[in-house]
Amino acid sequence: QYRRLHVIVGDANLCELSTFLKVGTTAIVLAMIEDNALENDLSIYEPVRALRSVSRDLTCTSPLELRSGGSATPIEIQWQFLASAKKYAERTGLEHCGGADVGAEVLRRWEEVLTDLEGDPLNLDGRLDWVTKFCLLEQFKDRDGLSWSDPKLALIDLQYHDVRPKRSLYERLVQAGKVERLLSEEEVERAISRPPDDTRAYFRGECLRRWPKSIIAANWDSIVFDVGSGSLQRVPMMDPLKGTRNHVEALLNTCDTPLDLIERLGSPLP
């Protein structure tokens, strides 16, 4: 009944606006696909090759061949998606795309970014990762008299994304106030252990918070418990619409141990 779309492009994003738009625009476009609301076929003829081409095109203006015939630049394609998304929002609203307010903000920031990409991409320094990193690399290059092929710049490229705060160049930019934040540190810290209430992530997150030492593995579709005796116990979570706060909070509050939970469930989440 359900399939999980695994979008790995942009996994290394650190700028919050990049992630916000990546997730937000994808949610809206998927909703339009499900409702057959896309006005034009914007499928790219060779998407993997196009991805590589776009990643090396700092102007975002190199034409890409479309399956429907003809070609369009990355920015032209994005403008067409945005135009369709605006019409879709007027017809159906965006409550099912993160909420009306969030959806409206996605559309606003989407248009803002496209306008800057079309005018001068460097205006997005501190908002989009690739622009921010390019500006940072250019500063090192000019300061130290390096060529673009210098191995030092390759190391800086990687160090920008280092997940260790003390080594991350992105984190230094954050501390210097040079990147736009959409969230406070408190909101980020809370999100580490408090997932959204309205998906199965709530059940998974609550189990991890309550019984971290008893969980052997936690995946998209199951949690595996070590209950202290016997074999490991796997709790499937195949339905993405179950496991919400409304669905399981009362059950979890009656359980002192993972074994209590397993015994009360007796079977996968109903």
Report on the structure:
The protein is mainly alpha-helical and 270 residues long. The chain folds into three domains: 1-121, no CATH class; 125-182, no CATH class; 194-265, no CATH class. The chain is built from eleven helices and five strands; from the N terminus they run H-H-E-E-H-H-H-H-H-H-H-E-E-E-H-H. It has helices at residues 16-34, 47-55, 74-92, 100-119, 129-144, 151-159, 169-175, 185-193, 201-210, 245-253, 258-265; strands at 64-65, 71-72, 215-218, 222-225, 233-236. The strands form two sheets. Strands 3-4-5 form a three-stranded antiparallel beta sheet, with helices on one face. Strand 4 (222-225) and strand 5 (233-236) form a beta hairpin. Helix 9 (201-210) runs parallel beside helix 10. The mean pLDDT is 93.
Short structural summary:
By secondary structure, the chain is mainly alpha-helical. It is 50% helix and 6% strand. It has a 3-stranded antiparallel β-sheet with strand order 3-4-5, covered by helices on one side. A two-stranded antiparallel sheet has the order 1-2.
How are the elements arranged and paired?
Elements: H1 16-34, H2 47-55, E1 64-65, E2 71-72, H3 74-92, H4 100-119, H5 129-144, H6 151-159, H7 169-175, H8 185-193, H9 201-210, E3 215-218, E4 222-225, E5 233-236, H10 245-253, H11 258-265
Antiparallel strand pairs: 1-2, 3-4, 4-5
Helix pairs in contact: 1-4, 3-4, 9-10
